[in-house]
Amino acid sequence: MKSYLPAILAIIIAITVLCGCGTPQQACPKIGDKAPDFTLPGLDGKNISLSSFAGKPVIINTWSTSCIECKREMPYFQEVGKQYGPQGLVILSANTMDSSGTTKDFLIKNGYNFTVVLDLKNDIYKKFCCPKTADPNTFFIGTDGTIKSIKIGGFATKDELVTDVKKIIQ
User: Among 2, 5, 115, 151, which is 20 to 30 Å from 43 by CA?
Assistant: First the structure.
């Protein structure tokens, strides 16, 4: 049996290496890259795709109701939406943990009216290579569909958010 051990180990190593080959790794998008498209269910159950907002400046923000930083920055998004909505700004808010009912209740209670999708399978995390424990994540997509700015973590002030919004408003 001892003489077979090196051969068995060589086969295991070869299989491990070969199984990894041919599986393309998705590159993580960065500033200047085209934003990866995704389709997720909205609160009404209808699918919403990032591509449906082509030609508009879009903010994608991931959050959950249990995230303190997320809840702290939400009023800034509401204000920015009112201020820049007439210029075509879309705020696409992606809840990453809560049910549709919990999310709706939270939005109604706080008077928020963003476009909300449910990302319970972490599609945005995967496509944008977000750290899994870093809600909120915010991506600023220009009218040309490219990523203009990325923020991991919450915004401390509305002015900080506005600085990034100005990068996508024409």
Answer: 151
